[in-house]
Design brief:
By secondary structure, this protein is mainly β. It has one helix at residues 3-11; strands spanning 16-18, 20-27, 33-37, 42-45, 61-63, 66-67, 70-71. Strands 4-3-2-1-5 form a 5-stranded antiparallel beta sheet, with helices on one face. A two-stranded antiparallel sheet has the order 6-7. The longest helix has 9 residues, at 3-11.
Length: 98
């Protein structure tokens, strides 16, 4: 997904994941698009500081698939079926609330 497609999907209320379903893209109350790792609350910006380059490859972002109309939050597979546990370049991630 392109940066514009990701932002449009989030703005439309769709659930967008990065790499696997443990990572969710969302927009905060300041209008910033962030990627949050659900198990521990760590987050990183969707883009670099300039807002132009994604923190991840376009092919790694996907819209949540639903089974019988409900998401399957236990699944850890990305769009290519490969589960990933660590964010590439994850050194920039930090826990929320610290």
């Amino acid at each position: 997904m392109t940066l514009e497609e990701i932002k449009a999907a989030v703005d439309a209320g769709q659930t967008v994941h990065w790499a696997n379903t443990g990572y969710v893209v969302h927009k905060d109350r300041l209008g910033q698009y962030l990627i949050t790792y659900l198990p521990n609350g760590s987050c990183i910006g969707l883009t670099d500081q300039g807002g132009q380059r994604l923190n991840g490859r376009e092919a790694e972002f996907f819209i949540a698939r639903s089974e019988d109309g409900a998401e399957n939050p236990g699944s850890q597979s990305g769009p290519d079926g490969q589960g990933r546990g660590v964010a590439p370049g994850g050194a920039g991630a930090f826990p929320l609330g610290r």
